[in-house]
Design brief:
With 201 residues, this protein is mostly helical. Helix content is 23%, strand content 0%.
Amino acid sequence: MPSVSKAAAALSGSPPQTEKPTHYRYLKEFRTEQCPLFLQHKCAQHRPFTCFHWHFLNQRRRRPIRRRDGTFNYSPDVYCAKYDETTGVCPAGDGCPYLHRTTGDTERKYHLRYYKTGTCIHETDARGHCMKNGFHCAFAHGPLDLRPPVYDIRELQAQEALQNGQLGSSESPPDLQPGVLASQAMIEKIVGEDPRWQVML
């Protein structure tokens, strides 16, 4: 069985980044498989829905992958206009390069770009679980729970070009997805103010 660091490197692509086992498990597996107990009508975590696995198709999340060329398999910022939030179906299937707005916005919150990269504003209970979002909270509770974001190579190249004065603030390379140039301040504003990031899963 491969070590966690090797498996994490395979998940996030190059350059390798060592993920904590718990973080890696959520990045790779959270809501990516259907709950076998739900199929047997035996899942006790259906109401309220707190199951680690998905019950209905619109709760299903694709694994985020940083490919060998440094690009993500789907954008962490740009939502797909064709994804049906009710049925959980996209005409482009799993190969869609855009973000699917799944129940709880899990594709965005548990993406390599965002998962546990910001600190949660809510307290933890006696067991160390988030008082608002429960034990699946996508935000860090304490400095040891934080992880560095993984960036799409195009975002890194755009940031470098901006720093070197090669791009004007309103310009972007033609192959760059819209939204990738969002500043860290804008990302923090979204995380802090968007109510979708604060709701119970």
